[in-house]
């Protein structure tokens, strides 16, 4: 007799963004087709007793193979980044497709697709980065690409070659509104950073710790306020990515209280690192933007996680090698922190850090963990209900989680292309033991399947 299912996940505790319950899950053709007390009749039965069975992580903020300045090379390609993602319990990642000046979005996309094709171990879905918002890009390309499933893009308020003027931001936000795409923004005041950086360099303050000191909280707070005001003027919802502190959070909360659709994202580095982590001989390892702050800001971000200021928790995985002149030891970085590539690896450690510090320490429920790591990403970016939940008809994107396994985070056990982790020695409780993408086991007990085949997933236009 033909079995009813390709796979049954049996005897686990299923966690969704709303419920926790004991059930078996039946999978056929890559989708969840049954959820019941007991199921039988499968080619393979996976024993999930003692495990949490959750939607695989969706990391909606990762950078892979992104050009990052002269002589700088990102540490991950699509093979290594998605391998690392899979080991970390993720089933979908959303990397950025960066538009160079003068480049069309389509050309940028075809370059990234060329790099990703056949290399991915989990599913991927690209955001765009709009750096050159010409009338052709805003009037023709963005609307056409939104119809084809590229339904989100990021704008930058800082960085040469990426930053947009306020006028350009308004025009780009208007294009988001007309095309139904989701707008995201990196909110830091570029002039203020340049002013403080020039002053620091004049004073000879060039060590990595001055990266954090020249991007203080008001730099982020002011830009967050301005970005929200521009979104209000354009009449468009907006995601404020990588929020690091209370003052930026308060801008989001105030805007929401006025009825604006403003969403917030935070990341592991703002929960467990501080600016002091940049104040050491190897401080370059932790240079990222916005920078990690202090313990008061960590506590504020935890409040934001608990109280719903943050809709999503992403890694902002942006990996460079440390011991490498194409990475954190870029020769110019010796002269000034200005030249140290901005970004840290984190796609593989994102889920364990939040589970351990959040769920195990009693700050959030397992359901909220699922919402923050999977479901809300799917909702925000047009992947729901195909992804981000455990429900009949959804893709069988599932992580089996051992809630008791104790692990010391260390470079030795990770699978990214970087040669370090910012979380070396950090102890976590809770670990992914099996990752399944569309019904196919990609990682089981620390071993990667040889036949993983991640796909690019076009997305729906997101609902507000
Ligand atoms: N912004 C990001 O989103 N990632 C890395 C660096 C940055 O500034
Ligand atoms: Zn950014
Ligand atoms: Zn980023």
TrEMBL record:
<protein>
    <submittedName>
        <fullName>Dihydropyrimidinase</fullName>
        <ecNumber>3.5.2.2</ecNumber>
    </submittedName>
</protein>
<dbReference type="Pfam" id="PF01979">
    <property type="entry name" value="Amidohydro_1"/>
</dbReference>
<feature type="domain" description="Amidohydrolase-related">
    <location>
        <begin position="52"/>
        <end position="442"/>
    </location>
</feature>
<keyword id="KW-0378">Hydrolase</keyword>
<dbReference type="InterPro" id="IPR011778">
    <property type="entry name" value="Hydantoinase/dihydroPyrase"/>
</dbReference>
<dbReference type="InterPro" id="IPR006680">
    <property type="entry name" value="Amidohydro-rel"/>
</dbReference>
<dbReference type="InterPro" id="IPR011059">
    <property type="entry name" value="Metal-dep_hydrolase_composite"/>
</dbReference>
<dbReference type="InterPro" id="IPR050378">
    <property type="entry name" value="Metallo-dep_Hydrolases_sf"/>
</dbReference>
<keyword id="KW-0479">Metal-binding</keyword>
<comment type="similarity">
    <text>Belongs to the metallo-dependent hydrolases superfamily. Hydantoinase/dihydropyrimidinase family.</text>
</comment>
<dbReference type="InterPro" id="IPR032466">
    <property type="entry name" value="Metal_Hydrolase"/>
</dbReference>
<dbReference type="GO" id="GO:0004157">
    <property type="term" value="F:dihydropyrimidinase activity"/>
</dbReference>
């Amino acid at each position: 007799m033909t079995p009813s299912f390709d796979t049954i996940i049996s005897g686990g505790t299923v966690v969704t963004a709303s419920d926790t319950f004991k059930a078996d899950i039946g999978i056929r053709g890559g989708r969840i087709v049954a959820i019941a007390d007991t199921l039988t009749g499968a080619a393979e039965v996976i024993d999930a007793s003692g495990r949490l069975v959750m939607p695989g992580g969706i990391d909606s903020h990762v950078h892979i193979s992104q050009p990052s300045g002269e002589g700088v090379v990102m540490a991950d390609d699509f093979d290594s980044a998605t391998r690392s993602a899979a080991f970390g319990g993720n089933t979908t990642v959303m990397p950025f497709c960066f538009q160079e000046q003068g480049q069309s979005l389509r050309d940028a996309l075809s370059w990234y697709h060329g790099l990703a094709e056949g290399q991915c171990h989990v599913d991927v879905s690209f955001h765009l980065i709009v750096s050159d918002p010409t009338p052709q890009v805003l009037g023709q390309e963005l609307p056409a690409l939104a119809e084809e499933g590229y339904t989100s893009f990021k704008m930058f308020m800082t960085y040469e070659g990426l930053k947009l003027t306020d006028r350009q931001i308004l025009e780009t936000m208007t294009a988001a509104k007309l095309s139904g795409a989701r707008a995201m923004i990196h909110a830091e005041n570029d002039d203020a950073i340049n002013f403080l950086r020039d002053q620091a360099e004049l004073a000879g303050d060039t060590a990595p710790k001055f990266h954090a000191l020249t991007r203080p909280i008001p730099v982020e707070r002011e830009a967050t306020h301005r970005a929200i005001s521009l979104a209000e003027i354009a009449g468009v919802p907006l995601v404020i990515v990588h929020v690091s502190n209370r003052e930026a959070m308060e801008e989001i909360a105030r805007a929401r209280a006025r009825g604006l659709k403003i969403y917030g994202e935070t990341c592991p580095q703002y929960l467990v690192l501080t600016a002091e982590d940049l104040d050491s001989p190897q401080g370059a390892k932790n240079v990222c933007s916005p920078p990690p702050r202090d313990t008061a800001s960590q506590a504020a971000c935890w409040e934001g996680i608990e109280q719903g200021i943050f809709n999503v928790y992403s890694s902002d995985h942006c990996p460079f090698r440390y011991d490498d002149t194409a990475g954190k030891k870029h020769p110019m970085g010796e002269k000034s922190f200005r030249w140290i590539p901005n970004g840290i690896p984190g796609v593989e450690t994102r889920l364990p850090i939040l589970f351990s510090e959040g769920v195990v320490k009693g700050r959030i429920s397992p359901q909220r963990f699922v919402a923050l790591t999977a479901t809300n990403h799917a909702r925000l970016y047009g992947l729901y209900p195909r992804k981000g939940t455990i429900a009949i008809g959804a893709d069988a994107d599932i992580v089996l989680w051992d809630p008791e396994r104790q692990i010391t985070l260390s470079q030795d056990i990770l699978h990214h292309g970087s040669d370090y982790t910012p979380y070396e020695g950090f102890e976590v409780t809770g670990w992914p033991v099996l990752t399944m993408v569309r019904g196919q086991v990609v990682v089981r007990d620390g071993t990667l399947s040889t036949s993983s085949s991640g796909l690019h997933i076009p997305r729906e236009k997101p609902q507000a």
